[in-house]
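Page 47, continued from p. 46.
Same chain as before, 194 aa.
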Amino acid sequence: MDVRLFALDIAAICALAFALYYPRHRRKDLAVALVGVNVGVLAVTMALSTATVGAGLGLGLFGVLSIIRLRSSELSQVEVAYYFAALAIGLIGGLGSGMPFAAAAALIGGVVLALGVVDSRRVMSGSRHMAMVVDRAIGDADELARFIESRTGMAVREVSVVRLDYVNDSTTVDVRCGGKTAVESARPRNLRAA
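Result:
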């Protein structure tokens, strides 16, 4: 067991969960889950790397466990990225004793850095995703986009009808909006009806 890899793993997962994820997304339960999953994966991979059990069996077990966890709670795509980053950091930390420490450190640092950059507001500031329920049953995509723009003041780039309910007079939609207001924006929209 390489104590440096263990320390690096703990530092990396704390940075990922508490310096990147939690301040940006404010889900305490998932921040704790990221640390728990990472430490669990790290412990099991370290144990498997010293045992005679094949690495393929161990990785297969992790795949089954991660699928069960991901299917038991609804996670956004961003949260799935953090979840898999925590798994990857734990795997590199646990199995990295067969590679130079600098290479393992670069891989772990690269995972944390990639999420830090890609999930920042500076990189993804021009787009926003919302799931919403509109208090009217609107089947026409253009009319629906105009209605949402009038309510939110944001430029609708894409609208996709998830559910159209004429009985309760409501429409459930998946909306992608731009950062500018509807009046300021001149970009075309991608509109899809149900």
